[in-house]
Amino acid sequence: MASSSLPDHLAIHNTSATEGSQTFAGINLGTIAYAPSETPLQLNDLLQKTLPVSVDASFSARKREREPKCLAGTRTDLLNDIYNWVDGGSQSIFWLCGLAGTGKSTIAQTVAATYSTQNTLGASFFFSRGGGDVGHAERFVTTVAFQLANIIPGLKRQVWDAVSERSDIATQSLRDQWQDLVLGPLSNIPIGKDCKSRYVLVIDALDECEDQSDIQIILQLLAEVRSLKVVRLRVLVTSRPDISVRYPLNQINRDEHQDFALHDIERSIVDHDITIFLRVNLGRIRQNNELQADWPEESAISALVRSSNGLFIWAATACRFIEQDGRLARDRLSLLLQEPNNTTEPARKLDEIYTTVLTNTVRGEYDEEETLRLRDLFRQVVGPIIVSPEPLSVSSLVGLLGKDAEGFRPTLSNLHSVLHVPEAESTTVQLLHPSFRDFLLSRKRCSNPQFFIDEKLVHHDMYKNCLRVMSRHLRRDICSLGRPGADKTSLSRGEVDAHIQPHVQYACRFWVHHYIRSDVDTEDHNKLESFFRIHFLHWLEALALLGCASDAVGMIHMLNSGFSGKREKLLRIPTRIRGKLKSMFAFSDAPTIDTNPEDPKNVAQPKLQALIHDAVRFILTFRPVMDVAPLQVYCAGLVFSPTASIIKKNFSNEFPAWLPRTPMVSENWTPCLQTLRRLTRFNHMAFYVACSPDGKTLASAWDSKTFKLWDAGSGKALLTLEHDSRYVHDATFSPDSKTLATIGDKTVRLWDTGSGKALLTLEHDSDKSHVATFSPDSKTLALTDNKTVKLWDISSGKALLTLKGYLNLISALTFSPDGKTIASASKGTVTVWDTRSGKALQTCNHAHWVRAITFSPDGKTMASAEDTEIVELWDISLGKTLRSLNGFYGVAFSPNSKTIALRSMDETIELRDVGSGKTLSTLKGHSEVVCAVAFSPDGQTLASASDDKTVKLWEAGSGKVLQTFKGHLRALKTVAFSPDGETLVSASNDNTVKVWDAGFREGLRTIKAHSGPVRAVAFSLDNKMVATAASDDKTIKLWDTTGSGKALQTLKGHSGLVRGVAFSPDNKMLASASDDKTVKLWDATGSGQAPRTLKGDWGMVRAVAFSSDGKTLASASVGTVALWGTGPWKALQQLRTDEILIEHVALAFSPDGKTLAWAMGRTVRLWDIVSKTVLREFEASYDLQSLSFLDTGFSLLTDREVLLLSDAPDENEVIHQPAPPQSMSVHEDWTYSNGERILWLPSEYRPQFVAIHGSIVVFGYSSGQVLIANFVF
């Protein structure tokens, strides 16, 4: 049946349909919606749109079409070995290694082409350093998955299903991508008649992947293909014999990979193959140029073979050199034959031919000035090509260098022997072999100064050119997004490229890369400061549009690191960022940044350093929204930057016009560097979080049996670890941070934190709570199992020892610092064991359960804490108690083992001398119990975390409070210093982790309206004032909403909490309701007149409201609603209500003033004021917080909906309708105007209370801070 013959609407119960058909079976009951399954072609389009694929990675990519394959009769033995391995080898990986120029890529190209013709090439990925997408691993898995899906029948649907289930998979870790897009689909694929049993993956030049850690991960992932049962994969990997590849391969079982070294092949075999190569290629040159039949002579070919010294790249370069100008083929061959034919090392022979090729490009008679000009031209053209982190097209080179393309062509045309120079100017110029780059950049190898390229000088020129290009082209809203909250996904990549040209994109992404590798001077500092002052926000916008916003922090810190000669620690950001810099922005062999204080770049002007420091804080704060809505750098970025921000001042002319007066924000940046949110999937679940010892990684429980690893510097999700238990209740890192143990109800799993690979699964017999800890060398895991402790060897998975003898469950476990002993605790005892023999060395007796034990760093003392608030200190060598300390439940040793910090239930911390037990100081300042303490690595500072939601830093010597960090919304769980002591990490029950600047010592000047959270807000009818009241400080503040935004008055007089406020219709009076059982009437005009107080026989007053004519005031208290006449003030009547204390109470008069609506919790009553009777009563579905009549008098507007009332007085029926959309609204982290996002709210400015009236928005915070924003459109 054709699709056109189907009815428009059809519904069928118990329906079945065959995939791709329109055959239905079932009971037709009237209507149906029909959607056919996607065809393979549609699936292909869907995958192309959702999976980022590197188009240059495949062996058959357009850019690789000139890449050679092995000639017939060459490499025969090796190719046969590879083919035999594919057909029947037991190993899943074949590693083909070889020195530069030995022909690895040619062999890989040949193998890929061979299996492609047989439809058994699953995928190919040819890495190329500096090759853009093929220079790193970001698109490796997605590209392999896409290619596999297009060759293996049935796999496309499996991959699409995986993408549909997890739409963000392309942004997740390589391990998650590999599991979801490759291993998972291949494991579930149904075997069909067209599906082969084996497919080949070809991975070439793996050593050219920029990030060495990614190389290790890729090899670990590739090794996992051995687990496939239905469709098997054979992986050919080629690389140089670098340690970056050799080391991870050595970690893989030797039986799982077959290795072959090209440079170990017998020389005669290599010479034979090179001879064939030269005969074929020189023969083709002879035919194309109609040279005589005996050209070249066999002796010439033999001489060339000897000169090649076993390097195919030498032979290939020689042929290209001869072919470049066929008219000079004889002369060029003779030139090569004139070179010394001695037996030097291969690299030297390669240098000789490169020198010959380059010398030939400038043959002729030139004077000194012309020679210098040619030298500069060569450096200008070739320098950027060999130092750029990704290939540049001719047009991009022209744009970056500001030169005429015609001036480039003559130089490039003479270099076809060593460069791939395309005809199209939009196509990239590429090195034919990376050894040419190495040659030109080495003064020792490139002995001719005319061709040597000074890398620092080229980088300096490129940096200046990038700055010039950006200054010329960057501007606000460069892609014409228009709307301030517009999502960048509304733009296609083509639209972005049309507005930001390739050379501008390059400049934005790589100017810092060039800057840090160059020599700079004072002029450069001035230009850089000028660029930041004028174009910093334009640059951030462009980076965000290019999908590189997350790179900005690292780039700016990299820039700042060039100024580190003074060692001024103006900038402190998470160590993780520093550790990632090299891999993010440089090749694996990136130079170490020079910190010589005499270097000009290290004596940067203080103004520039301060500006860069400000830039880092700006990016850290606003990076999350840059990734989504780039134009928010001009909106949220400028609105919420502190008033002292240099960037805020520099870009004051860029403030959003629709917010003519910006809210009053903090003066300086806060000490909170990062707030990491959504570290768990569900808000209601227990929040487990662990910080790695190196401070780079966080592990958090995502759901009941899943942990996620996060980058502590950026907040980016790194890995998802699925535990196979019913639930996971804890996790711990190894001391070297390389392994994570997740502890479930039945098993403990060990994970590689770099790759996410499951290393080991340990089963235990009991589903009771378990404790796990690593030995100091990270080689052993100790795990409690019911009433025993087992020690496991992590590398082999074997149980080393079982420690027995406990009568109760084991509650705590820890290794001594030297790893020779381990202490375990239970009810009544702590036992110290020898970790080699398993012998119990000491038994320390307690009267109650021991909940925590810890060794001093020198291993001489042990502290154990009972659940009865007793801490015992033990001399380990003697097994004797040094002293008992009463009233404490937690302990931490200083790094020098001389001081101990004790947590007390009375909200204090005591510092005591370990040797004498003398109290050194008592730290007072927290208002609730202290839940964690930690010493800084140098022992000079102590950090404490408390249930009072704060973190405090104390001077360990004096006990002085150095800083108090506020920002968490719930009690703290833990606190830890980074290894360098510069940052502090705190985790809270509010499901956030905050990263703090531990060196922050400035006084914070936060503009606070109240000392506690705002509870009530009222707007004047003319919108010129707003009143706020806080429950804690018993005050009311009146604010100007039209001019300065400052507080006009502070009204004091209530002795209890203020619960409600309301303006009179003429805006001259303000009424307030308080727990002190009074209503106060304040002069809102600022006359200073004393307030009038209304009292009655009621309880605490919760709400007040004026009638529309201002003649009546209503106040609601527990059990009573009182009505007052306003002129003169007198009690009119009282309406009795239920005597129930409810948090939320609201009052509202009808427009005619005859009816009063009263809401207490969910109950709503309408009172006839004259008769004092209840007209109707009904229940809402939620506690009402606000209430007002609409103009008709038959509708009530609440804080969530409209309640339509029947006009019949005896009917209680209420119709619930959605509230009409407000012109302004706030939802989660965005402020909206007419449903459209306009202003993003940073973490510290997300309110706990919001009040909106027209275009005025009041943000209230738990700290007592109030922000008022008046939007004008």
TrEMBL record:
Name of the featured protein: WD40 repeat-like protein
All residue ranges annotated as the Nephrocystin 3-like N-terminal domain in the record: 75-240
Tree of life domain: Eukaryota
Pfam families: NPHP3_N, WD40
InterPro entries referenced in this protein's UniProt entry, alphabetically: NPHP3-like_N, P-loop_NTPase, WD40/YVTN_repeat-like_dom_sf, WD40_PAC1, WD40_repeat_dom_sf, WD40_rpt, WD_LIS1/nudF_dynein_reg
WD repeat segments: 721-761, 803-843, 843-884, 923-964, 965-997, 1007-1040, 1051-1083
Sorted UniProt keywords: Repeat, WD repeat
Source organism (scientific name): Lophium mytilinum
Family annotation (CDD domains): WD40
